[in-house]
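Handoff note, outgoing to incoming analyst
You'll be picking up this chain. Sequence as last confirmed:
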Amino acid sequence: MFRSVRHMIYDLIEWRSQILSGTLPQDELKELKKKVTAKIDYGNRILDLDLVVRDEDGNILDPEQTSTISLFRAHEIASKQVEERLQEEKSQKQNIDINRQAKFAATPSFALFVNLKNVVCKIGEDAEVLMSLYDPLESKFISENYLVRWSSCGLPKDIDRLHNLRAVFTDLGSKDLKREKISFVCQIVRVGRMELRDNNTRKLTSGLRRPFGVAGNCV
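Most recent structure output, in case you need it:
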C-alpha cells in the first residue's frame, strides 16, 4: 500500500506542475484535472477515507447548494467509478500473477546447493574430488562435475577457497523431479605415483590419475 500511495503522490506532483505551468490547452487541461480528481478519489478509497462527491468537471459539490437527490446520485456515480477502477487493478494483478506462474512452471527453476566442508580420506597424495548428480536407474550422470583439487596436506590446493567451496547444480526441471531416484555422487581421484610405496627412484612416476574412492547418497 505504501508503494502504491507513493506512486500516486509522484503522479499528482507531476500533474500539478503541468497544471500550474499554464502551457496546456483548455481541452488537455480539462482532461488532466479529471485524471487528478480520479487519482485522488482512488487513493482515498484504498486508504478507507471519505469519498468526495464532485460534479462532471471535478469540482467538489457544495451540499448547501445541491439537493440531496443530486448528492446521492453523484455519490453513486463516483462510487461506481472507483469500484470499476479497483476491479480493473485487481484483474491486472491477477493476470500478472497468472503469467508469472505460467512462466515459473514452463522454465526450470530448481537447484541443489552444495557446500563442501572437508574431505576426510587418508590418501597421502594430491587428489581431485568430483561431485555430480547421477540417475541410478538410467545408469547415467545428469549433471556436470564440480571439481575441487585437494592437496596431500588435507586442504584445498587453492587455499584462498578454504571454507568457500560452494556449488549450485542448476536447471533441474520437472523432468528431473519425476525421476524415481537421484544420487549425489562424490568421486576421488588420486593424482601422483603409480604406487604409493614406490621408493625406487628409477621407477618413480608422478601426475598419474588413478581412481581412489567413490561415495553416494540419495537426494
